[in-house]
Amino acid sequence: MTRVVITGMGTVSPIGNDTPTFIANLLAGKLGIDKIKKFDASATGISVAGEVKDFDPQLRLSKKAAKRMDLYSQYAVYTALEALEQAGINAENTDPYEMGVIIGSGIGGLTTIQEQVIKMHEKGPQRVSPLFVPTAIANMAAGNVAIAANAKNICTAVVTACASATNAIGEAYRQIKEGRAQVMLTGGAEASVNEIGIAGFAALTALSTQADPQVASLPFDSKRSGFVLGEGAATLVLESLEHAQKRGAKILGEIVGYGATCDAYHITAPDPSGEGAARAMQAALDEAGIKPDQVGYINAHGTATHANDEGEARAINRVFGADSQVWVSSTKSMTGHLLGAAGAIEAVATVAALQLGQLPANIGLTQQDEKCQINVVTQNALPVPIEYALSNSLGFGGHNAVIAFKKWSD
């Protein structure tokens, strides 16, 4: 089968609007969670979020193009253009019919939906924008990325809640591995830090009600009280090894396995036994052809909800053993939870950990929950050279998705 490598990464996140800044801040343990500034959230009972700061779409998109996109699509295209630039993909070295797009989003254009419903309610249906549907629908990030990149192979969207981006990356990996494309642009985008997004998750009692950003997102800590909503996007350029080497590309990492399963248990709660997530991790390991003791790091889904963290810890124990020393951290401690984009920025974080031999910390953790018996990286990035790593994403609806990454070496 064809080997699949990563040659470009683009990122917009609460801790940086390009990949080098994101990685530097991630390894420095920078907190991207702060008081909500986009709107007055006081009536929701929620005070903090992982907002993207100082985002200027016109650094990469034309004013006209940006105006015709919801914010989540802007994030997607912006990161795709950064990833393409890093990869050096262009019309001279890549056949557009061999390049595809798979982008995940849990919700799609929620900002547009909110704005247009309010407009319809206040001013009548005749005032709804003619661009409402093509800006709001959840496939449009993929469509806009394909247009920007002139990618004419498969173009599709994945919607599996918080597993969307990881499923998208896994499916893009399979497209290349199985010979249906040579290059894929893949990842996830989300822009749900708005009134309806915060209000909806608050009504579900899923969000942290902590007012202090320093202690709002505490994955695997006994004091955790829910997740913090984040926003942003990341796009990866995947290529067949042959295509990348033929054009002399710099290779950043390799994808070697993908697992996807379903709990078939509950619409929002994960299976508390961790059985479904464990099967997804094992499937990724099996496809990679590696044993658990070869994995040096797991970027956990780690949302800081009691149900998720306990279930995921049990899943890790099922696969790696109760006494496993595999290092684990949730970078949501810094970024908050980007929903359908979470797996994309966490893929970037995992590739960086492999490249640099620096494992990002699960910042803020001071008292690990006894029900989460895993080996968590705390406080500071940990210098450990590793060859293999997993990135886990678990979504409402029981979706489990896991990618196995390998450090690149010639």
From TrEMBL:
It comes from the Bacteria. CDD domains: KAS_I_II (cd00834). SUPFAM superfamilies: Thiolase-like (SSF53901). It holds the Pfam family ketoacyl-synt. The keyword Flavoprotein does not apply. One of its GO terms (molecular function) is 3-oxoacyl-[acyl-carrier-protein] synthase activity. PROSITE patterns: KS3_2 (PS52004). One of its GO terms (biological process) is fatty acid elongation. The active site is at C162 (for beta-ketoacyl synthase activity). Its EC number is 2.3.1.179. Belongs to the thiolase-like superfamily. Beta-ketoacyl-ACP synthases family. This is 3-oxoacyl-[acyl-carrier-protein] synthase 2. It comes from Ligilactobacillus saerimneri 30a.
